[in-house]
Amino acid sequence: MTAGGDGLDDRVPFLARLEGGERQALLALGSPMTYAPRQALLREHEPSAHVLLLLTGWTKVTAAAPNGYEALLALRGPGDIVGEFAALTSKPRSAHVTALEEVRAVAVEPARFTEFLRSAPPVSMTLLALVSDRTRAADRRRLEFASMTVRERFASLLLELARGFGQRTADGVELQVPLSKQELAGSVGASREMVQRLLKELRDRDAVVTGRRALVVRRPDVLRRIAGGGP
């Protein structure tokens, strides 16, 4: 689960990085919450009311541009923490977090969260390390994507989703996070129509199979060739 021997992989969630006693103490500070699919957990620009520790279910983190374009910034799931920046800085939330499926979480009031961090330096350092890992990974992805065409970025995204959020089935690797075409488009800076065309090309090459909010990667070798600039 390490990344190159220098820190944890950015996909290792916050709660998984804590010692058992630290994790239980933090969870004991909050109240249980349940969110239905497509329900907002946090809203962009709103003041912080709580920090959320995700227990089950996946969420998407998005931000809206002034022209209305919505970009998919990240996926957060079991063990992850969301809303911590607004709690620590006392500034409005910088992104929107929406449930992709039913989500169970623990909500901790900002004052209780920050007080806990002050009283538990190892937990504070763990949170700082997580932020560092996420920032490094985001910088790496931006650098990689800047040198790619939309077609290459889309193939690379599907490979990343299959590695991080896929489950092997008889048909291939099925993505376990239900993303719409618009959400996929927002992740690679493309239009929904472009993503539809790319998916049709990949279906024609038997690289993927798509259904209603479902996607199975059948030929990762084809995606790797495309992501690498091949035909």
What would your notes on this structure say?
The protein has helices at 14-17, 20-27, 84-89, 110-119, 121-146, 150-165, 181-188, 192-204, 220-227, and strands at residues 31-35, 40-42, 51-56, 59-64, 70-76, 81-82, 96-99, 103-108, 166-169, 172-175, 208-211, 214-217. By secondary structure, it is α+β, with helices and mostly antiparallel strands. The chain folds into 2 domains: 12-143, Jelly Rolls; 148-226, Orthogonal Bundle (Arc Repressor Mutant, subunit A), CATH 1.10.10.10. α6 (150-165) packs across α7 (181-188). The longest helix is centred in the middle third of the chain and has 26 residues, at 121-146. 29% of the residues are buried. Residues 1-7 have low confidence and may be disordered.
The count of strands amounts to 12
Class of secondary structure makeup: alpha+beta
Q: What CATH architecture label of the largest domain applies?
A: Sandwich
Mean pLDDT comes to 88
Can you count the helices?
9
Helix content: 40-55%
Looking at this structure, what is the CATH superfamily of the largest domain? Answer: Jelly Rolls
- Main sheet: strands, sense, barrel: 4 strands, antiparallel
- Please name the CATH topology of the largest domain: Jelly Rolls
Quote the beta fraction. Answer: 15-25%
Instruction: Tell me the strand order in the biggest sheet.
Output: 1-8-3-6
List low-pLDDT spans: 1-7
